[in-house]
Design goal:
Order of helices and strands: EHEHEHEEHEEHEEHEEHHHEHH
Shape: globular
Oligomer: single chain
Largest sheet: 6 strands, parallel
Strand order of the largest sheet: 2-1-3-4-6-10
Radius of gyration: 18 Å
Strand content: 15-25%
Structural class: alpha/beta
CATH class of the domain at 3-141 and 171-202 and 244-260: Alpha Beta
CATH superfamily of the domain at 3-141 and 171-202 and 244-260: NAD(P)-binding Rossmann-like Domain
Number of strands: 12
Length: 273
């Protein structure tokens, strides 16, 4: 099966390129010129395009978040619908769910804030695809050389790490290695529908930082006040502080085997010498 990847320069995209070294790369120029002739030889298209969420959400940057997801997906879907591509695998986020609730793929509690509405619009564009379609709702993807973990490591290495505020909010995470495994599972089984790309064991921010500190052999004494994050990220601070307790019911029901279901196993593997 020939794979094409849009958004291959990001954290997840780089890992997928290692798994599919012969993948067709859909570039920014392709989107700019609306030229997708290169997917005529692809069986599967993976869509990872989207500006980073963890930044300060100015009015201008919100527009970039929207355009980089909605407009690119719209163009990609139109091209796929007029091609011989068999399977479209797009991306979304667990931010589509309401905060402070236990959620899985059957949950009707959807968020009505900016990130929730962005995710809904993103998925709606993907679902206009007339080919077999899968949408992976990403939680916090953790890997040593990118994603959220890379940003969290520095303060701990400098002995100033700690939880965010009281640390009670829940985090739904996934090892980058398990995410790659999910892509293989989806492709090999021709799986379609909505899938939560998260571990079966969400964890509080407080417990996560304790485990991270223990793994690094560093203290965890310095909580980060919410107002500091608000000053840095504006409305976007909610991505780091909102409680998201999301479960991968679909994958559990399909007997998918996570290699790193618990944070402690994942951190030991990611941070070992």
């Amino acid at each position: 099966m020939k794979v094409a990847i849009a958004g291959s320069t990001g954290f997840v995209g780089k890992y997928l390129l290692k798994e599919f070294p012969d993948a067709i790369i859909i570039t920014r120029e392709n989107f700019k010129n609306n030229d997708f002739d290169l997917i005529k030889n692809a069986d599967i298209v993976i869509n990872l395009v989207g500006a980073p969420i963890a930044k300060r959400w100015t009015k201008k940057y919100k527009k970039e978040l929207i355009d980089s997801r909605i407009e690119t997906t719209k163009k990609l879907v139109a091209a796929i619908n007029n091609s011989n591509v068999k399977h479209f695998i797009s991306t979304s986020a667990t931010g589509i769910y309401q905060k402070n609730k236990k959620c899985d793929e059957n949950t009707s509690y959807l968020a009505s804030d900016f990130l929730g509405n962005l995710s809904k619009s993103w998925e709606n564009e993907a679902l206009k695809c007339q080919k077999e379609t899968t949408i992976l709702r990403f939680g916090v993807i953790l890997g040593k050389d990118g994603g959220a973990l890379k940003k969290l490591l520095l303060p701990f290495k400098l002995f100033v790490g700690g939880p965010i505020s009281n640390g009670k909010f829940m985090m739904s995470f996934l090892s980058i290695k398990d995410l790659v495994k999910i892509y293989h599972f989806v492709i090999d089984n021709k799986t379609t529908g909505i899938i939560n790309a998260v571990s079966p064991y969400p964890i509080s921010n407080k417990d996560f930082t304790k485990l991270l500190a223990k793994t690094l052999k560093r203290p965890s004494y310095f909580p980060v006040p919410k107002f500091i994050l608000k000053l840095i990220f504006s409305e976007g601070a909610g991505v780091l502080t909102d409680s998201m307790e999301v479960y991968p019911k679909f994958l559990i029901d399909k007997s998918f085997q996570f290699d790193y279901p618990k944070v402690e196993d994942m951190l030991t593997d990611l941070l070992k010498k």
